[in-house]
Design goal:
The chain is an alpha/beta fold. Helix content is about 25%, strand content about 20%. It has an 8-stranded mixed sheet with strand order 2-3-7-4-6-5-9-10, covered by helices on one side. Strand 2 and strand 3 form a beta hairpin.
């Protein structure tokens, strides 16, 4: 039994000892402290060439993890203001703050996102940015319920039913992933949001 209160889940994530799972505006997330990202790769049996996403409660919490020219930072902030919180992941040049385990093969980039889901934001406000991915074994469909997540990942901390609100804004679609190429956006995955820039 790994269902815990929201406070215990937050403490488990902060400690770095646990992977946690919580609902987002897209599919449920598996999350861990960024410097313990290897826990997620091991649990998911995920290849090292599939990087994790850094998720936070605000854009301000994410900007230290990326680096670009003043003009680029301004543009990225404008996109974030238009689409965050929301189902858009921006793949940007990584700063030295990004732990190597988050993107072991290509240390130059990091995907960042602010979810549009009150419960996820409440957790992230207290944990700080977390390394995240969908709750499933690599190559399988995302798990959508606590029971499914617990069955596949018995060691992961999930929320007790009383802590879960109805996910009325959740979508079965993953986030749209847009990579900054130095002058424009390349859509790596079309998801819930259509990026217009």
């Amino acid at each position: 039994m790994t269902q815990v209160s929201i406070d215990s889940l937050i403490q488990g994530a902060i400690s770095g000892d646990y992977i946690v799972s919580f609902p987002t505006d897209t599919v449920p997330a598996l999350a861990a402290r960024p410097d313990r990202a290897e826990l997620i790769f091991a649990a998911k049996r995920r290849r090292q060439d599939k990087p994790l996403i850094l998720m936070a409660a605000s854009p301000q919490a994410l900007w230290p993890y990326v680096q670009g020219s003043p003009a680029e930072l301004t543009l990225w902030q404008q996109v974030a203001q238009s689409y965050w919180p929301g189902a858009l992941t921006l793949v940007l040049p990584a700063s030295p703050l990004v732990p190597p385990a988050m993107n072991a093969i290509d240390r130059t980039t990091i995907g960042v996102r602010v979810p549009n889901f009150p419960l996820a934001l409440k957790i992230l406000e207290q944990t700080g940015p977390l390394a995240t991915t969908s709750a499933n074994l690599s190559g399988q469909a995302p798990r959508s319920s606590v029971a499914e997540i617990e069955a596949q990942f018995p060691e992961v901390l999930t929320l007790v039913a009383a802590e879960l609100t109805t996910a009325t804004t959740a979508s079965s679609l993953p986030s749209t992933v847009a990579k900054w190429t130095g002058g424009d956006w390349e859509i790596l995955r079309q998801g819930a949001i259509e990026l217009k820039c």
